[in-house]
Specification:
mainly alpha
């Protein structure tokens, strides 16, 4: 592939093959992560549209047929609320205030989603930072090997020096060519990960706010129903007696 001569050191050849393998891994991860980012974004947009189009909180909790981080975070939140409101939730996982339990469940799920999205980024970062030095190592070793061969020939003319030195410098060029895409891809996907995590945090806050309002409305409706029931059950004589007592 690089038209290396037989005089090229085995170490330099090993370095070049390692860099080629790293390049294949880099472009494979770039392709896989690109598809993942596109797919997750599509799923989140679809679910959020259905979520905010739901007529009420209970309808939003019953949404099915969706996927993606936002959907999984919502399902964990709805599951936590159902467990809290049921009588069977008596373990430490559901211990504490209703809002605290919900926030803890959402925070744990968001962290799981972040870890899932981070897969492959460590490999890109490692390749991006080490590939130039691996190439430089191959170059240094190749130059040392070339100088040893030149000393054996007893000639330092340009024709003798240019070939081995040029072949050794290929390792540095390949190392840089491998590192640049890895670094750019790492920065891009890291930025997308931070944006996605911030969006999940915002969605979790909205979910907590909606759960508060849903509980408040339920309590208000219960209080109003109890008030109207008391007034309906009260007899006219009792009402008149109470009014007379107040007037007195």
């Amino acid at each position: 592939m690089f038209n290396l001569s037989s005089s090229t050191s085995l170490v330099v050849q090993s370095v070049l093959f390692a860099l080629i393998a790293a390049s294949i891994v880099t472009w494979t991860l770039i392709l896989v992560k690109s598809v993942q980012v596109w797919h997750i974004r599509k799923q989140n947009v679809k679910f959020r549209g259905a979520f905010w189009s739901a007529p009420n909180f209970q309808s939003a909790a019953g949404l099915e047929g969706h996927g993606g981080p936002a959907y999984r975070v919502a399902q964990v939140g709805f599951g936590a609320l159902k467990d809290i409101d049921s009588d069977s939730a008596n373990d430490l996982q559901h211990f504490g205030d209703r809002q605290d339990v919900l926030e803890r469940a959402l925070r744990q799920q968001i962290q799981k989603e972040r870890v899932l999205r981070e897969s492959g980024l460590v490999v890109l970062a490692s390749i991006g930072t080490t590939a130039p030095f691996v190439g430089l190592f191959g170059t240094v070793w190749g130059i040392m090997h070339a100088l040893t061969d030149i000393s054996k020939l007893g000639s330092a003319s340009l024709e003798v020096v240019a070939g081995p030195i040029g072949e050794a410098l290929i390792a540095t060029a390949v190392g840089i060519a491998v590192a640049v895409p890895a670094v750019l891809a790492y920065n891009f996907f890291l930025r997308r990960l931070k944006t996605s995590s911030n969006n999940l945090d915002d969605f979790a806050e909205d979910l907590i706010t909606l759960s508060r309002r849903a509980t408040f409305r339920k309590s208000s409706e219960s209080a109003e129903s109890a008030t109207f029931s008391d007034l309906a059950l009260a007899s006219p004589a009792n009402v008149v007696r109470n009014l007379k007592g107040a007037a007195a």
